[in-house]
Every structure is written in structure tokens, then in C-alpha cells.
């Protein structure tokens, strides 16, 4: 219908390169924990209202633009893997990639042989270096393979003398290949060349990235320095060579580790060693005397700088002497312990002794990274310094490019290999996706600009609700007051919101949670609740353990509530408590399983403390001590009131209900009806059967698929199996593979029709830079679900390795037509940037959420397997829809909800359960 | 100097431990330690190894390297740049490292005013014409307080393996002890220097007459510092090309000094505030008063602060106190802390440095902290 790349006159100031397609949808992001990606500055709230972005002012399109525009394409069977037909507005998207123009015709690869053989690599280097007049100054040599930008005569024979014994060595240089200048083989040494460029610009290498300590921002109150910097790497993409460059920051403490130790000691001399270990071990330190970073693995309390160690020469020196002699540094404190760093085992050239331990002197080392945050204000201050708006980000990238161009040495260094950087970052084209319609029981709506449908779901009747009949509140005796208060508030608030038919809670004091017999939950009650100290992780774990394993009551977790200092007193308080209770109630009422309110989602929305706590908190604040609210509330959902057999006749109740159902059912209905945009009011029958929002999503989307194929039966459904699978690599403890599956029997057929696997791979430790792989597979007739499960699993694991290797972190910003070179934030996009990735697989970038601050980092999706022959269009829209489905967040999330669930489950299993949870829980979101 | 060496008389192979080049550098380092020069130049710096060692000598404020070959300097010159760690705790002394490309046969004003000039294994690489000009440039023009010249001792070559004429293919000549000493004495006499001969790389026992493997002459200027007028007469045409220049962060730089002072002031003030509040809380608990009542004056007891303040005389104006939610810590109190004191020197300077960076009371005499804000942090 639309051309692949509709050009809108006046919208783009830069010529489009190729036909990259992006979509855009809109969504709210969950507040994400601070990090490189999420933490981007809030200088100036990015607001589309004030910034003429991509649309002509005044003609902001409504979403979906028209019902026809959002209408699926007439079912011409899409070829798999083809690039989708654009739907929605196109936008320009700036990426954190810079095109590298290769000006040389070729790079020549030679093989170098030494005869007699020279073992020592450095000697090989030196010998070849003596023949600069033959090879030229520009070489890349690894000991046997030599790359040159020039063509030598077929074979070159050279002679040199071995310094050590004067023996004559013959060097033969033979050409093996003529390479494209953008060849994969060249990239490693291009990266070396680029590192040299960064050094010429006087950027300091810390770890793997480059920073500018001269431009440091100093946060005096916390004795921190924030160094701006760049992470750079040259990569090959479909469109040629690209420099991937990102503007980043490094937080370094201005205090030496010794000073940090001193301050820890001042706070509490008794627990000094424990506290030190806690704070220091695991952190990365830089030293005063060299340019290395070390990971602190341990602290040696028995060693001091007066101890001796052996130099490579075999000489024994004390640390004090060594640093005085080698670096002219006098160690002042002679009784400090030493930090231990254990280098990772590396392939070292034979004969060299591998260091098994590096001892560092605390006085001479500095900690990097944001210190353990007891302190939310510090966190806020530091993030504020680090956050960058898109235009700032853009400016810093452009600044780097300009510095390289302006510096003759730097650009000359690149030109030696015929590389020239494009003066601007790479711009590509994206698309704004049509918005998804959200239906409630009696109404449907298009999410507003802010992408919060919180208001709608609280005001309108949900599609289905599950009543809470009987609750057991379990609490230790000392928390009796709190519990009573909670019960009262809950009842009150339910009343005000149209009470569930059988609401009620019974307070039952209990001795101690540790002795708490799991049978107490759910033996009679529908649900159980227990206040828990939110800081007491072990206890919380015990609970989780009990719930999930010993007695598989649908899991539950503390509603994490912090005292809100600003809400101290005032009429708000009451309402806050009520809403908190209501939230809990909602959680409980979602009797599919208790829930763990996701930390990301509820934060401040949740209410405040009952008065006594508030007073206590106030008192604590007065004292200047940190005292979090000691109680949390755990709800364990019990047996749903409707017996499994009765599922088809749920009694939807007014009031709040799991929003996921709200959200997904309408979509389901909408798709089933085949007329997007039409209000569909009666999806209840299906919804009754959907026990898991993720499944519901699957169901909906699966139902959509046949229709899209023009196949029969938009209403036909199959047996769906959802596989959440994630190997929890990040959790140190265990590597459990978890498969949470939900089997859903729908209507008529029992044939397993479609399996959709969502899998997230995590780059180690950086949860925020998660890349998501979406695997979609349809198996036409597959009665043995187990078989397809295994095949899928094995395939995804295989593939994920490949995915991890290719790292792409595009950064999105749009170019405003009015203000040139001023990229700005936008709220959500689909972007399919085929030319930026290796083209073997279908992939695309999606920005489904909206960041309130800083730059958005879209998620990259790679379609690993697509036997269902889904078109890219479908894949992308499907993914976007899945991002709407996080069950208690009224907005879109960064990754598809099933992926997020899988994370949570894997985390819980890896950190706490260490076993597969009870079978009864398989169809519940007990891990939330 | 280390006299360790291993020797196998029979094969004639002599191995120095540590290697001879390291012994030469160590010799220079020892010399620097002895004379504490502020400005040091290394002629023929090659891959800047010596400069890298010297940058850690805390007496040196200006380091310069000169070599005829740019590419050899460029290879490792970035090791002379400041380390990231240098920015975290700027040193007290300033340090500038500069590399020049040029010949020792040419005069350039950038080489004037040095305290120590080292020519390690340099002269044997000079062509005859350059060697003739060399004394005039180094001793006559640069005229540093000390000049160190080292060169191979050809008499020792017999003990070294290999039958090469010279130790390095680029050597134009290698002198024996007598040749070097006569050249040195003549030069010293002409330019009014005194010279002492020494060396590194001891000969094997029984062959002491061979002399050191590397012979070194240490020249010390006899006349006092060249007067300004004398220097201004000298040609000022720059012929050297600056290849590299790195300025190290130091507390002499206003920017870093300011940061250091502000950081120290805030740190000190926070410490005082904390102990003040702790004490106050304890007091408060004792009486178990109505929590609304918060206005009081607190006299810091001597023993509380004595560990930090030392012999500080507590004057009336130096007492930190709490008023409402605000803690006031007089600047004079902070100034009395030795660290702050050493950084700023004078009270006026302290005030000047922290202006605008630290919240001060209306009259500018005390640092203010809002306890409310602080507690939220926690």
C-alpha cells in the first residue's frame, strides 16, 4: 500500500540512506533503575508538545491515524524475511553510529615467515620493524599475519640479524589475500588504530573506554568525580564499516580506598572488616601509578605494605620500597591491609608465569563506580549529572567527530588506512507505529499522549475481576497494630470502591514467620498476607521458598513501601494508605496468584505508612539515621473462588482487576473481530479462560496470525504453550533453566498450533542493555508439545551465543525539521535498521517505551527462527503489542512482557528457590 | 649502582643484572635524588623511557626530551601523559612534559634554564660535524647546572660477545677511557665546568683496568646561574619542533586547588556536623523532651574534637552551633584543620577559593548545612 520509504517533503533534511524502516508507537516506560541506558539527564523535559518534531505543528495525527490506515493489509501472503511495508509516519532517527568511508582500494594480507623460526613475538615485531623501508610505516602485524595498505611485489625476502646471538634470520613476506577495506579481518586492527586516535585526542583509557578527567564534574558533597567519555568500537554492518560510539560517564571517588576504609571504621569499628568487605569487594579500582583497572576480589587483612613480594627478576622487595623506587611514591600508612585482585586466567605465551594474585595498596587506589547507595539523594544528584538529553548526547558525539577531524594527527592516523569518518552521525529512517486500542468492559480507548491509561483502568469497569473471599493475614505478634490497621484500611477502601462480593480479612497473629507453617496459607483461606521487613532479604527468601516449593500457594512478595518523607502528614495520608491497601487488595484479588509488585512499577504510587510508622520515621529522620519502614505486606493469593471447572463462568466484579487482563483482552477481542479500532465490548468468554496475561497475549496474537495469513478462522485457537526460558547467567548462585509454561485449552481444538518463544539475552551485569530475541515459530500440526519445546530450546540457546557477540546499541533521536541538528527525544518507535546489523537474520529495533529523561535506547530484536512465515510487519507489531501487556503497569514496557516475566522468574529461582517451583504454580504469575 | 653481575670467564659472556640500560637510568635517578633539579632535559630521549622514570621524581617540575627522530618518540610518548589517577589527587608540584624534535647541534631557546641535562648514550651517535657543535650547544648555550654524558667504553668491548666493531650499528665511534676523558676535560675547561668520571657496569674481577662498561662524565657548572641579561642575548629563534606536551594537574593550578579546598572544607564541615548532631541527639534523648523543641546551642567539648583539632584554641567565634534546622560551622573552625590550612595558607584565600561553591551563612563566616535535607539523604 505504501512505499517502503515514503518521503515526506520538508521533514528530512538529510538524504536517506537506503530504505531503513522504523516504526513508532508510544508507550510509557517503567521507571527503570539508573544505569547507563536509563539514566539519562533530565535537563529539560523532553516533551513533544513544545517541540515541533516530525509532524507539522497543529496536525498531530491521532492514533491510529484512521481506521483504514491501521487496517491490516489485504492478505497477500507476505514473504518471510522481506522488509515490511511501512505503516505509519516516517521519522528520522539518529543512531550512535558513524559511517566510515574506506578510501583505499584494498588491504593486503601477507604471511610472514621467519627462518630459522623466531619464537619470541616481540622479537618478530622488532625484526619486521627494521624493514620499514620495505613495508612502509603503516603496518598491522600480529606475529605472522601482516596487513598493509600497500601492495608489495609477490614475495619479499629480507634478511635481519638476531640481536641475541647475531644469527642471520631470513624473513619472507608472501601475499595471501587482497581484502576489501571493510573486511571483517581488518576490524581488529582498525579498532587498535582508533584507540590510538583517541589517545592522540588525549582521552584517557580506563578499562575499555576513554574518558576525559580534565572535563570532570565534581560532586563535592559525595566526594565523587564524574568523567565524561566515550565507548567506541568499529563494527561491520550491512551498510559498511561503522564506528559505534556512545557518550558515557565514569564515576570515580576522589578518595583513596584507604580513606574509604577510614570512614567505614569511623562509622562502626566493630563491624569494620565485614563492612569493608561488603563495600569494597566486587568494586573496580584504578591506581595512582599506572593505567590499569582492577577488580577487587578480596582483602588480605594479614598483609601490610611492609610485606615482601617477588619481582619478575626474582628479587624480593617490600611494597613500600617497590613503590618508592619505581614510582617515587611514599606510602604513608604502613599498617593498611592489601586488596587482592585475582586475574582471570588468560592464555599467556608459554613460559610466562601467570600471576595468580595481584596485591594492591589501598592508599594508592581509587574506587570507581557509584558507591553503594544508601542514599537516594546522592543517586539522584549523580544521575542528574550523568543524564544527557538527546541533544546533549548528539552534541557530544558530534564534538568527538569534530575533534578527530580538526586534529591533523588523529585524522591522519585514520587516513593511513584510508579511513575517513563521516562528519555526522548516521541517520536512518524509522516509522511510528499505529497505537493499539485498549478495551475495557464497557468501553475502549486509545492511550493518550502520555501513554498512561492508569486513569481509565481505575475508573472503568474491568473486563473481568476475581473476587476475594477469604483472607488470612499472617504476621508476627509485634506487628499486630500494623496488621490491624491494614485490615481496617483495606476494608474501608474496598467499601469506597465498590466492594468485592466477598471481601474480608481475618487477622491471625502468629508467632514468627520462620516457624510459620505453610499450611496456614490457603488451608481455609483464599489468600494470606504477612507483613515482612523489607530489608530482611533472608526472611523474605524463606517466605518465597515456602510459598513456591513447600506449599505451592501462588507466590507472594512484599509490597515494597518506603516512607515518603514529603507526604509527612496531611490529608493525603489517609488516601495514600487507602490506595496502598487497594493496591494490595487488587494484588490479592488477582487470585491467580499473589503478586510481587514489581519494584519498577509501583514506587511512589503506593501509599504511605500508617501514622505510627510515620511518626517513627519522622523521628528517625530527625536523628539523621536511616530507618526504612520496617514492614511490608505480603499477600499470598489462595485458591481462586471459581473452581477450575467453572472457569468459563467467572463472575467479573466491578472494581479493579488485573490490568493485564484489561489490556490484553480488548486487544484480543479487537483482533478477533478483525476490525481494529472498532469497539468490541464482549470479549468476556475468552477472557475467562485466560489465566495468564502472557498467555492471553499469545492467544490474542496467535489468533491474529491466521487472519493475517488469510487463513481460516480468526477465532480458531489452539493449544498454546508459552515457554519462558532464561538461563540465569547473571545470578551467581545457580544456573537453573526454568520453563514456565502454561497450557491453555481453548474452545475446540487440541492441536498445538503456534508456539511463540520470547527469550531475552542479557549482557552480563547490564540488565538495562538487554537485547531481546524474539523467536516465533508456527508448527502446523504438532501434537507432541514436548518435542517442539526441546527443539526450540536448543535452537534458541545456540542462537543466543551469536547474538551476544554482535553488540549494537543504537541510540535513537529524531531530527527536528525546524531546528537543525537537534535530535530530540521521542516516545517510542519501531525502528528496523537492517543496514546496521548483519543481514543474515531479520531484525529490527523497537522503542516501545517512553523515557521521561535522557535518550532512549531501543531494544533490538532478532528473529531467530520464523517457520510461521510471518512477515516482518507482523513480527514487529506483535512485539510491540507484547510490550503493552505487563500486568500491573498501565503503559508500555521496554521489552515484551513475557520476557520480563521470565527475568523475574529466573531471578527468583536463581536467587531464592534453587528449584523448579511447584507445578501448581505453573500457570500463575507467582514470581512477580 | 648495583654491582651485581654474572660472569662466566670462560665463555667471556657478561650479563649485567639489572640490565645495563636500567643501571644507567638508575644512575640518573640517583643523581636527581641527590641534586633535586627542578628542570631536567634528556637529550636523545629516544623512546622516552628515562623521562617516564623521571616523571615520578617529585622534585622535577619541567621535563623535556629532545630527539632527532620523531617516530621513535611517538611510539611511547603517550605514556608520558598524566594518568587518570593523577586527576583524582592532583600533586602539589606542577609538572610539564614536553618533547621536541631537533638536533643537539642546533640551539633553541626552549632548552634554556635547565638544571640538569642528560645525554645518555648520545654522543657516539653524532656525526663528526655534530660532535664538534655539541659542546657549544650544551655547555655554552644551554649551560645547565649539571650535565651528564654517558658513552660506551670501547675497552670493555673485548669482554662482550660478538665481534662487531661497535655495540650498535648506528654508532659513529666508540671511545676508550682516555679518549672520553680527554674530550670531557677539554670541554669542561673551555666552558668552565668541573667534571667527574664514573660509570656503570663493573668489569670482572681481575680486569679492573678495563673500566666501566659505560663510562659517565658528570659535569657541574662552576660559575653561578646565568644572569637574565646573558640569556636574553642568546638567539631566540626556535628551531625545534614540539612533538608532545602534557601538563599535569597540580594544586598550583587554581582549578584543581579550588576543587581540593572545597572538597576538604565540605568534608571537614560534614564531620563536625555529624559529631555535633550525634552529641545533640544523645543529649536530646536524655531529656526525652518534646520533639518540637529543637533550638539549642551546643558547645563542642574539647575531647570530642581534640583528635582533629589538636591544640586548637576554641574561641567563642569558632563554635559550631545548630539553629533550627541549620547547622553553622564557622569557617575559622574549618580553617584551623591542618589539611585545609595547608592547602589555602591564608584565611582570605580560603574564603576566595570556596566562594560560590559552598553554602555560607549570610555574613559569609560560617558554612551552613540544612539538617532536613541531609536526613532525607539517609
From TrEMBL, chain A:
It is found in: Cytoplasm. Pfam families: ArgoL1 (PF08699), PAZ (PF02170), Piwi (PF02171), Piwi_N (PF23278). Residues 54-64 have a biased composition (Pro residues). Residues 503-523 have a biased composition (Basic and acidic residues). Residues 533-543 have a biased composition (Basic residues). GO terms for cellular component: cytoplasm. Residues 844-914 form the Piwi domain. One of its GO terms (biological process) is regulatory ncRNA-mediated gene silencing. Keywords: Cytoplasm, Developmental protein, RNA-binding, RNA-mediated gene silencing, Translation regulation. GO terms for molecular function: RNA binding. Residues 26-87, 490-583, 592-611 are annotated as: Disordered. Residues 256-369 form the PAZ domain. PROSITE patterns: PAZ (PS50821), PIWI (PS50822). Belongs to the argonaute family. Piwi subfamily. This is Piwi-like RNA-mediated gene silencing 2.
UniProtKB/TrEMBL annotation, chain B:
Gene3D superfamilies: Vaccinia Virus protein VP39 (3.40.50.150). Its EC number is 2.1.1.386. SUPFAM superfamilies: S-adenosyl-L-methionine-dependent methyltransferases (SSF53335). GO terms for molecular function: metal ion binding; RNA binding; small RNA 2'-O-methyltransferase activity. One of its GO terms (biological process) is RNA methylation. Its cofactor is Mg(2+). Keywords: Magnesium, Metal-binding, Methyltransferase, RNA-binding, RNA-mediated gene silencing, S-adenosyl-L-methionine, Transferase. GO terms for cellular component: cytoplasm; nucleus. It catalyses: small RNA 3'-end nucleotide + S-adenosyl-L-methionine = small RNA 3'-end 2'-O-methylnucleotide + S-adenosyl-L-homocysteine + H(+). Belongs to the methyltransferase superfamily. HEN1 family. This is Small RNA 2'-O-methyltransferase. It comes from Columba livia (Rock dove). The lineage of its organism: Eukaryota, Metazoa, Chordata, Craniata, Vertebrata.
Amino acid at each position: 500500500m505504501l512505499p517502503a520509504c515514503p518521503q515526506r517533503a520538508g521533514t528530512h533534511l538529510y538524504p536517506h540512506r537506503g530504505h531503513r524502516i522504523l516504526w513508532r508507537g508510544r508507550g510509557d516506560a517503567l521507571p527503570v533503575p539508573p544505569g547507563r541506558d536509563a539514566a539519562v539527564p533530565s535537563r529539560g523535559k523532553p516533551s513533544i508538545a513544545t517541540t515541533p518534531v516530525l509532524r507539522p505543528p497543529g496536525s498531530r495525527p491521532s492514533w491510529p491515524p484512521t481506521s483504514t490506515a491501521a487496517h491490516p493489509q489485504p492478505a497477500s501472503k507476505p514473504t518471510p524475511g522481506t522488509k515490511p511495508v511501512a505503516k505509519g509516519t516516517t521519522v528520522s532517527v539518529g543512531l550512535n553510529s558513524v559511517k566510515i568511508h574506506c578510501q583505499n582500494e584494498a588491504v593486503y594480507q601477507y604471511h610472514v615467515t621467519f627462518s630459522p623460526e623466531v619464537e619470541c613475538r616481540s622479537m618478530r615485531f622488532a625484526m619486521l620493524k627494521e624493514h620499514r623501508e620495505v613495508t612502509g610505516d603503516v603496518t598491522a602485524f600480529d606475529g605472522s599475519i601482516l596487513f598493509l595498505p600497500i601492495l608489495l611485489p609477490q614475495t619479499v625476502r629480507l634478511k635481519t640479524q638476531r640481536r641475541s646471538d647475531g644469527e642471520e634470520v631470513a624473513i619472507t613476506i608472501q601475499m595471501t589475500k587482497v581484502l576489501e577495506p571493510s573486511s571483517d579481518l581488518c576490524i581488529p586492527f582498525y579498532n587498535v588504530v582508533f584507540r590510538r586516535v583517541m589517545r592522540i585526542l588525549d582521552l584517557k583509557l580506563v578499562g575499555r573506554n576513554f574518558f576525559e578527567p580534565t572535563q570532570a564534574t565534581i560532586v563535592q558533597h559525595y566526594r565523587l568525580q564524574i568523567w565524561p567519555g566515550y565507548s567506541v568500537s568499529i563494527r561491520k554492518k550491512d551498510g559498511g564499516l561503522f564506528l559505534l560510539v556512545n557518550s558515557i560517564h565514569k564515576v570515580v571517588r576522589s578518595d583513596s580506598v584507604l580513606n574509604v576504609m577510614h570512614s567505614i571504621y569511623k562509622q562502626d569499628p566493630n563491624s569494620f572488616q565485614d563492612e569493608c568487605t561488603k563495600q569494597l569487594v566486587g568494586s573496580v579500582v584504578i591506581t595512582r601509578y599506572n593505567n590499569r583497572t582492577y577488580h577487587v576480589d578480596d582483602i588480605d587483612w594479614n598483609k601490610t605494605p611492609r610485606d615482601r613480594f617477588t619481582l619478575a627478576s626474582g628479587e624480593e622487595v617490600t611494597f613500600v620500597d617497590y613503590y618508592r623506587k619505581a614510582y617515587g611514591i611514599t606510602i604513608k600508612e604502613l599498617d593498611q591491609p592489601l586488596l587482592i585482585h585475582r586475574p582471570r586466567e588468560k592464555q599467556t605465551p608459554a613460559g610466562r608465569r601467570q600471576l595468580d594474585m595481584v596485591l594492591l595498596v589501598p592508599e594508592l587506589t581509587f574506587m570507581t563506580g557509584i558507591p553503594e547507595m544508601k542514599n537516594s539523594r546522592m543517586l539522584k544528584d549523580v544521575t542528574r549529572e550523568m543524564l544527557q538529553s538527546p541533544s546533549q548526547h548528539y552534541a557530544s558525539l558530534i564534538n568527538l567527530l569534530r575533534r578527530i577531524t580538526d586534529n591533523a594527527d588523529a585524522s591522519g592516523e585514520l587516513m593511513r588506512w584510508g579511513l575517513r569518518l563521516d562528519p555526522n552521525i548516521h541517520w536512518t529512517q524509522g516509522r511510528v507505529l499505529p497505537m493499539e486500542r485498549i478495551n475495557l468492559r464497557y468501553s475502549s480507548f486509545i492511550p493518550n499522549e502520555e501513554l498512561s491509561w492508569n486513569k481509565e483502568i481505575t475508573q472503568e469497569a474491568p473486563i473481568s475481576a476475581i473476587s476475594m473471599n477469604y483472607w488470612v493475614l499472617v504476621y508476627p505478634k509485634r506487628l499486630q497494630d500494623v496488621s490491624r490497621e491494614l485490615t481496617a484500611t483495606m476494608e474501608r477502601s474496598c467499601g469506597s470502591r465498590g466492594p468485592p462480593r466477598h471481601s474480608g480479612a481475618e487477622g491471625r497473629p502468629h508467632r514468627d514467620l520462620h516457624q510459620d507453617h505453610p499450611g496456614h496459607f490457603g488451608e481455609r483461606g483464599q489468600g494470606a498476607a504477612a507483613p515482612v521487613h523489607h530489608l530482611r532479604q533472608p526472611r523474605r527468601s524463606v517466605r518465597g521458598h515456602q510459598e513456591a516449593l513447600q506449599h505451592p500457594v501462588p507466590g507472594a512478595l512484599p509490597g515494597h513501601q518506603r516512607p515518603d518523607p514529603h507526604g509527612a502528614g496531611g490529608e493525603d495520608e489517609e488516601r495514600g494508605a487507602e490506595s496502598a491497601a487497594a493496591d494490595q487488595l487488587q494484588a490479592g484479588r488477582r487470585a491467580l496468584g499473589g503478586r510481587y509488585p514489581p519494584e519498577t512499577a509501583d514506587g511512589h504510587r503506593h501509599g504511605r505508612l500508617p501514622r505510627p510508622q510515620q511518626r517513627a520515621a519522622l523521628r528517625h529522620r530527625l536523628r539523621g539515621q536511616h530507618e526504612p519502614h520496617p514492614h511490608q505486606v505480603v499477600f499470598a493469593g489462595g485458591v481462586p473462588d471459581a473452581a477450575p471447572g467453572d472457569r468459563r463462568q467467572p463472575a467479573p466484579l466491578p472494581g479493579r482487576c488485573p490490568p493485564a487482563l484489561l489490556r490484553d483482552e480488548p486487544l484480543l477481542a479487537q483482533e478477533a473481530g478483525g476490525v481494529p479500532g472498532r469497539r468490541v465490548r464482549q470479549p468476556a468468554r475468552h477472557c475467562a479462560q485466560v489465566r495468564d496475561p502472557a498467555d492471553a497475549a499469545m492467544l490474542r496474537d496467535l489468533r491474529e496470525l491466521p487472519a493475517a495469513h488469510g487463513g481460516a478462522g480468526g477465532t480458531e485457537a489452539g493449544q498454546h504453550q508459552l515457554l519462558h526460558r532464561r538461563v540465569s547467567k547473571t545470578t551467581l548462585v545457580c544456573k537453573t533453566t526454568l520453563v514456565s509454561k502454561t497450557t491453555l485449552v481453548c474452545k475446540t481444538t487440541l492441536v498445538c498450533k503456534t508456539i511463540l518463544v520470547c527469550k531475552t539475552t542479557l549482557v552480563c551485569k547490564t540488565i538495562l542493555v538487554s537485547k531481546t530475541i524474539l523467536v516465533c515459530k508456527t508448527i502446523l500440526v504438532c501434537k507432541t508439545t514436548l518435542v517442539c519445546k526441546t527443539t526450540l530450546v536448543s535452537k534458541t540457546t545456540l542462537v543466543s551465543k551469536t547474538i551476544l557477540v554482535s553488540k549494537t546499541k543504537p541510540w535513537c533521536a529524531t531530527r527536528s525539521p525546524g531546528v537543525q541538528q537537534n535530535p530530540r527525544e521521542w516516545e517510542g518507535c519501531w525502528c528496523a535498521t537492517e543496514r546496521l546489523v548483519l543481514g543474515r537474520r531479520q531484525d529490527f529495533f523497537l522503542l516501545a517505551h517512553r523515557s521521561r529523561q535522557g535518550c532512549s535506547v531501543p531494544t533490538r530484536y532478532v528473529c531467530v527462527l520464523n517457520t510461521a512465515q510471518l512477515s516482518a510487519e507482523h513480527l514487529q507489531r506483535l512485539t510491540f503489542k507484547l510490550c503493552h501487556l505487563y500486568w500491573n503497569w498501565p503503559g508500555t514496557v521496554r521489552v515484551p512482557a513475557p520476557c520480563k516475566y521470565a527475568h523475574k522468574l529466573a531471578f527468583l529461582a536463581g536467587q531464592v528457590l534453587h528449584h523448579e517451583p511447584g507445578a501448581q504454580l505453573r500457570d500463575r504469575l507467582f514470581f512477580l | 649502582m648495583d654491582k651485581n653481575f654474572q660472569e662466566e670467564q670462560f665463555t667471556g659472556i657478561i650479563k649485567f643484572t639489572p640490565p645495563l640500560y636500567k643501571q644507567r637510568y638508575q644512575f640518573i635517578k640517583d643523581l636527581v635524588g641527590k641534586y633535586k633539579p627542578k628542570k631536567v632535559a634528556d637529550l636523545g630521549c629516544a623512546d622516552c623511557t628515562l623521562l617516564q622514570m623521571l616523571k615520578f621524581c617529585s622534585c622535577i617540575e619541567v621535563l623535556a626530551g629532545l630527539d632527532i627522530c620523531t617516530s621513535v618518540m611517538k611510539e611511547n610518548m603517550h605514556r608520558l601523559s598524566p594518568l587518570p589517577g593523577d586527576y583524582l589527587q592532583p600533586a602539589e608540584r606542577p609538572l610539564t612534559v614536553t618533547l621536541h624534535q631537533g638536533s643537539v647541534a642546533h640551539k633553541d631557546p626552549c632548552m634554556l634554564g635547565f638544571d640538569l641535562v642528560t645525554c645518555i648514550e648520545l654522543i657516539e651517535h653524532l656525526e663528526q660535524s655534530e660532535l664538534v657543535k655539541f659542546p657549544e650547544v650544551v655547555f655554552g648555550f644551554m649551560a645547565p647546572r649539571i650535565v651528564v654524558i654517558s658513552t660506551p667504553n670501547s675497552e670493555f668491548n673485548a669482554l662482550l660477545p660478538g665481534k662487531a666493531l661497535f655495540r650498535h650499528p648506528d654508532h659513529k665511534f666508540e671511545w676508550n677511557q682516555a679518549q672520553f676523558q680527554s674530550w670531557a676535560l677539554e670541554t669542561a675547561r673551555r666552558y668552565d665546568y668541573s667534571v667527574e668520571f664514573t660509570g656503570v657496569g663493573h668489569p670482572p674481577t681481575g680486569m679492573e683496568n678495563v673500566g666501566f662498561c659505560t663510562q659517565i662524565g658528570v659535569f657541574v657548572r662552576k660559575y653561578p646561574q646565568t644572569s637574565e641579561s646573558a640569556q636574553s642575548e642568546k638567539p631566540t629563534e626556535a628551531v625545534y619542533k614540539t612533538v608532545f606536551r602534557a601538563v599535569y594537574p597540580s594544586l598550583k593550578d587554581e582549578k584543581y586547588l579550588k576543587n581540593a579546598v572545597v572538597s576538604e572544607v565540605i568534608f571537614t564541615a560534614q564531620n563536625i556536623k555529624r559529631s555535633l548532631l550525634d552529641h545533640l541527639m544523645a543529649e536530646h534523648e536524655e531529656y526525652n523532651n518534646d520533639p518540637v523543641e529543637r533550638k539549642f546551642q551546643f558547645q563542642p567539648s574539647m575531647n570530642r574534637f581534640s583528635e582533629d583539632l589538636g591544640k586548637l584554641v576554641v574561641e567563642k567565634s569558632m563554635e559550631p552551633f545548630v539553629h533550627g534546622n541549620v547547622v553553622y560551622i564557622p569557617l575559622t573552625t574549618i580553617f584551623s584543620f591542618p589539611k585545609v590550612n595547608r592547602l589555602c595558607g591564608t584565611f582570605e584565600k580560603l574564603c576566595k577559593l570556596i566562594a560560590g561553591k559552598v553554602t555560607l551563612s549570610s555574613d559569609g563566616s560560617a558554612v551552613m548545612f540544612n539538617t532536613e535535607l541531609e536526613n532525607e539523604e539517609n
